[in-house]
Amino acid sequence: MADNFFEIKGLRELESALLKLDAIEGAEQLRGDLMTASKLALDDMKIGVPVDEGDLRRAIGRRSRIGTGRGVTVAKVFVGIVRKVRVRDGAGGARSVNQAAIAQEYGTKNHPAQPYIRPAFKRNIRGIIDSIQRSTWARLRQVRAPAGTGRR
Protein backbone atom coordinates (compact mmCIF):
# COMPACT_ATOMS: atom_id res chain seq x y z
CA MET A 1 0.00 0.00 0.00
CA ALA A 2 3.02 2.28 -0.41
CA ASP A 3 1.22 4.10 -3.24
CA ASN A 4 -1.06 5.70 -0.64
CA PHE A 5 1.67 7.91 0.78
CA PHE A 6 2.90 11.23 -0.51
CA GLU A 7 6.01 13.17 0.25
CA ILE A 8 6.87 16.79 -0.46
CA LYS A 9 10.48 17.19 -1.60
CA GLY A 10 12.73 19.91 -2.92
CA LEU A 11 11.76 22.71 -0.59
CA ARG A 12 15.29 23.94 0.11
CA GLU A 13 14.19 27.41 1.20
CA LEU A 14 11.74 25.87 3.65
CA GLU A 15 14.42 23.53 4.96
CA SER A 16 16.81 26.44 5.44
CA ALA A 17 14.22 28.46 7.35
CA LEU A 18 13.22 25.47 9.50
CA LEU A 19 16.86 24.99 10.47
CA LYS A 20 16.79 28.46 12.03
CA LEU A 21 14.17 27.29 14.50
CA ASP A 22 15.06 25.41 17.62
CA ALA A 23 15.10 21.78 16.45
CA ILE A 24 12.56 20.41 18.91
CA GLU A 25 10.30 23.47 18.72
CA GLY A 26 10.39 23.43 14.92
CA ALA A 27 9.60 19.72 14.77
CA GLU A 28 6.71 20.09 17.22
CA GLN A 29 5.28 23.00 15.24
CA LEU A 30 5.61 21.13 11.96
CA ARG A 31 3.96 18.07 13.50
CA GLY A 32 1.08 20.28 14.66
CA ASP A 33 0.74 21.75 11.17
CA LEU A 34 0.69 18.26 9.65
CA MET A 35 -1.90 17.06 12.15
CA THR A 36 -4.13 20.06 11.39
CA ALA A 37 -3.81 19.59 7.62
CA SER A 38 -4.42 15.84 7.77
CA LYS A 39 -7.80 16.35 9.45
CA LEU A 40 -9.27 17.03 6.00
CA ALA A 41 -8.51 13.48 4.84
CA LEU A 42 -9.37 11.98 8.24
CA ASP A 43 -12.87 13.47 8.23
CA ASP A 44 -13.41 12.47 4.60
CA MET A 45 -12.37 8.86 5.36
CA LYS A 46 -14.80 8.64 8.26
CA ILE A 47 -17.62 9.92 6.06
CA GLY A 48 -16.74 7.65 3.12
CA VAL A 49 -16.05 4.37 4.89
CA PRO A 50 -18.71 1.74 4.22
CA VAL A 51 -20.44 0.98 7.53
CA ASP A 52 -21.56 -2.47 8.54
CA GLU A 53 -20.75 -2.90 12.21
CA GLY A 54 -18.80 0.38 12.40
CA ASP A 55 -15.49 -1.35 13.21
CA LEU A 56 -13.58 0.31 10.37
CA ARG A 57 -14.87 3.77 11.23
CA ARG A 58 -13.78 3.32 14.86
CA ALA A 59 -10.31 2.24 13.72
CA ILE A 60 -9.69 5.34 11.56
CA GLY A 61 -7.49 7.92 13.20
CA ARG A 62 -4.17 9.75 13.13
CA ARG A 63 -0.90 9.31 14.88
CA SER A 64 2.24 11.35 14.68
CA ARG A 65 5.82 11.42 15.77
CA ILE A 66 8.88 13.57 15.55
CA GLY A 67 11.92 12.33 13.66
CA THR A 68 14.69 10.60 15.56
CA GLY A 69 17.42 12.96 14.37
CA ARG A 70 19.19 10.12 12.56
CA GLY A 71 17.65 10.85 9.17
CA VAL A 72 15.98 13.64 7.24
CA THR A 73 12.46 13.12 8.63
CA VAL A 74 11.47 16.02 10.88
CA ALA A 75 7.90 14.95 11.64
CA LYS A 76 5.59 12.23 10.40
CA VAL A 77 1.81 11.88 10.48
CA PHE A 78 -0.03 8.68 9.58
CA VAL A 79 -3.73 8.87 8.73
CA GLY A 80 -5.77 5.71 8.28
CA ILE A 81 -6.36 2.55 10.27
CA VAL A 82 -4.45 3.26 13.48
CA ARG A 83 -6.62 1.92 16.28
CA LYS A 84 -6.68 -1.73 17.24
CA VAL A 85 -10.22 -2.99 16.76
CA ARG A 86 -11.21 -6.61 16.27
CA VAL A 87 -13.78 -7.28 13.56
CA ARG A 88 -16.47 -9.88 14.19
CA ASP A 89 -16.61 -12.34 11.30
CA GLY A 90 -20.13 -13.68 11.78
CA ALA A 91 -18.88 -17.18 12.59
CA GLY A 92 -18.16 -16.30 16.20
CA GLY A 93 -14.53 -15.43 15.47
CA ALA A 94 -12.67 -12.22 14.93
CA ARG A 95 -10.01 -10.90 12.59
CA SER A 96 -7.84 -7.82 12.50
CA VAL A 97 -9.44 -4.62 11.30
CA ASN A 98 -6.36 -4.17 9.08
CA GLN A 99 -7.39 -7.23 7.07
CA ALA A 100 -10.91 -5.88 6.77
CA ALA A 101 -9.62 -2.45 5.70
CA ILE A 102 -7.45 -3.94 2.96
CA ALA A 103 -10.33 -6.10 1.71
CA GLN A 104 -12.64 -3.07 1.73
CA GLU A 105 -10.17 -0.79 -0.03
CA TYR A 106 -8.91 -3.22 -2.69
CA GLY A 107 -11.59 -5.91 -2.79
CA THR A 108 -11.26 -9.68 -2.77
CA LYS A 109 -12.31 -12.35 -5.22
CA ASN A 110 -15.74 -12.45 -3.53
CA HIS A 111 -16.12 -8.79 -2.54
CA PRO A 112 -15.73 -5.82 -4.89
CA ALA A 113 -13.50 -2.96 -3.77
CA GLN A 114 -15.18 -0.10 -1.92
CA PRO A 115 -12.26 2.30 -1.55
CA TYR A 116 -12.48 5.13 0.94
CA ILE A 117 -8.85 5.83 1.96
CA ARG A 118 -7.34 6.61 -1.45
CA PRO A 119 -10.31 8.71 -2.62
CA ALA A 120 -10.19 10.73 0.60
CA PHE A 121 -6.54 11.64 -0.05
CA LYS A 122 -7.15 12.34 -3.73
CA ARG A 123 -10.04 14.68 -2.95
CA ASN A 124 -8.11 16.53 -0.24
CA ILE A 125 -4.46 16.52 -1.32
CA ARG A 126 -4.51 20.12 -2.60
CA GLY A 127 -6.14 21.36 0.61
CA ILE A 128 -3.67 19.40 2.73
CA ILE A 129 -0.66 20.85 0.92
CA ASP A 130 -2.12 24.38 0.96
CA SER A 131 -2.79 24.13 4.70
CA ILE A 132 0.78 22.97 5.41
CA GLN A 133 2.22 25.73 3.24
CA ARG A 134 0.11 28.49 4.83
CA SER A 135 0.76 27.52 8.43
CA THR A 136 4.45 26.76 7.96
CA TRP A 137 5.22 29.92 5.99
CA ALA A 138 3.26 32.05 8.48
CA ARG A 139 5.42 30.64 11.27
CA LEU A 140 8.61 31.19 9.30
CA ARG A 141 7.68 34.81 8.56
CA GLN A 142 7.44 35.32 12.33
CA VAL A 143 10.90 33.83 12.81
CA ARG A 144 12.42 35.95 10.05
CA ALA A 145 10.74 39.21 11.15
CA PRO A 146 13.26 41.91 12.11
CA ALA A 147 13.79 42.65 15.78
CA GLY A 148 11.45 45.25 17.24
CA THR A 149 8.47 44.40 15.03
CA GLY A 150 6.62 42.71 17.87
CA ARG A 151 7.01 39.33 16.27
CA ARG A 152 9.39 36.65 17.23
Lay out the secondary structure:
Elements (H helix, E strand, L loop, with lengths): L11 H9 L2 H26 L6 H5 E7 L8 E7 L4 E3 L5 E3 H10 L10 H28 L8
Antiparallel strand pairs: 1-2, 3-4
Helix pairs in contact: 1-5, 2-5
What report would you give on this structure?
With 152 residues, the chain is α+β, with helices and mostly antiparallel strands. The protein has one domain (11-144). The protein contains five helices and four strands, in the order H-H-H-E-E-E-E-H-H. The strands form two sheets. The protein has a two-stranded antiparallel sheet. A two-stranded antiparallel ribbon has the order 3-4. The longest helix has 28 residues, at 117-144. The radius of gyration is 19 Å and the shape is elongated. The protein starts with 11 loop residues before the first helix and ends in an 8-residue tail after the last helix.
Write a compact overview of the structure shown.
The chain is α+β, with helices and mostly antiparallel strands and about 150 residues long. The protein has five helices and four strands; from the N terminus they run αααββββαα.
What percent of residues adopt helix (DSSP H or I)? 40-55%
| Classification by helices and strands | alpha+beta
Largest sheet: 2 strands, antiparallel
Termini separation comes to 42 Å
Return the domain count: 1
Approximately what portion of the residues adopt beta-strand conformation? 5-15%
Shape: elongated
- Counted beta strands: 4
How do the helices and strands follow one another from N- to C-terminus?
HHHEEEEHH
Q: Largest beta sheet: what is the strand line-up? A: 1-2
How many individual helices?
Answer: 5
Cα gyration radius (Å):
19 Å
